[in-house]
Amino acid sequence: MRNLFSTRIKVILVIAALLTAGLAILSGVTGTTVPELVVGGLMAPIRGAATALTNTAEKYYGYMFRYEALAAENEVLEARIAEMEDVARQADSVSRENQRLRQMLELTAANEDYKLVDAYIIGWSSTDWENTFTINRGTASGIQANMCAITATGEVVGLVTEAGVNYAEVTTVLDSTLEISGTISTSGYNGMVRGGYVDGTETLLRMNYLPSAAIIRNKEQVVTSGSTVYPRGLIIGSVVDAGFENTGVAKFALLDPAADISSLEQVFIITEYTTEAETTTDTGQTDATTPTEETQAGTQAGTQATVDPNAVG
């Protein structure tokens, strides 16, 4: 046991001597003292760890800085995109309005007796029994009840049923209480057109009181017959189906409305026009007709110009 202990001491002493000799040689070569070499060796791992930690912190800080810069840049880009989208929407709106106004000019050029007031839709009210909307013009713009509302291309939208100073309510052709005297343009058959009031036909119009012998074809156009409320020749819709009334003595036709009611943004109110039944003065001038309250919409639609079923055909 003593020999083993003596051997270990000897080994330790040899190693220590070698380390001392090595340090002495290294000190002579590098010009550094032995204590400095010892301290440097002990501090090397700590310095390495500190350097790694510093590098990691620098990388993290750089990442955070870049992230904040990217986030700020992203906000700027999103704001610019939103601004561009808004400009695009405004451009689209202006383009649509310009197109409608051009169409209106073409309509008034073809119907010089029309006096039109343009208005935008600002609210809707649609139920199973009524289909109405509110526009941003009223009596201050010359709009009154029982004036016809049309699109820029002369398609019937409905009838003004209420007017305030700066607003008006329009009942559309889809409302089941509104009736319009119509004519199938190709054949001349007359009937009364009203909103679809049967399940499954709410988006269609129904033309009643057509002669039982009438030959009705799909896609035939139906126009207004002309009255003190609706000028003659305005487009109401086109035929998509036909059949016999329950009595069997008359036919009916289902029409697809010419005006796309659900996508309307702007309408034009006919505040004045000349009827075919013009009155001639001594000077040879014709009198323009302004729609009056002689014809009521809604529940009073029955007072409109009607077609006697027995006289049709």
Please give a structural write-up.
The protein has a domain at 115-311: Rod shape-determining protein MreC, domain 2 (Thrombin, subunit H, Beta Barrel). The longest helix is centred in the first third of the chain and has 77 residues, at 34-110. Mean pLDDT is 76; it is low at 277-286 and 292-313. The protein has 313 residues and is of the alpha+beta class. It is elongated. Helices cover 34% and strands 26% of the residues. A 6-stranded antiparallel beta barrel has the order 1-2-5-4-3-12. It has a 6-stranded antiparallel β-barrel with strand order 6-7-8-11-10-9.
Q: Helix coverage percent of residues?
A: 25-40%
- Principal-axis shape equals elongated
CATH architecture of the domain at 115-311: Beta Barrel
Radius of gyration: 44 Å
Order of helices and strands: HHEEEEEEEEEEEE
The main sheet orders its strands as: 1-2-5-4-3-12
Q: Which homologous superfamily in CATH is the superfamily of the domain at 115-311?
A: Rod shape-determining protein MreC, domain 2
Task: From the 3D structure, determine the CATH topology of the domain at 115-311.
Answer: Thrombin, subunit H
Tell me about the largest β-sheet. 6 strands, antiparallel, barrel
The secondary structure category is alpha+beta
CATH class of the domain at 115-311: Mainly Beta
Question: So how many helices?
Answer: 2
Stretches with pLDDT under 50, minimum 5 residues:
277-286, 292-313
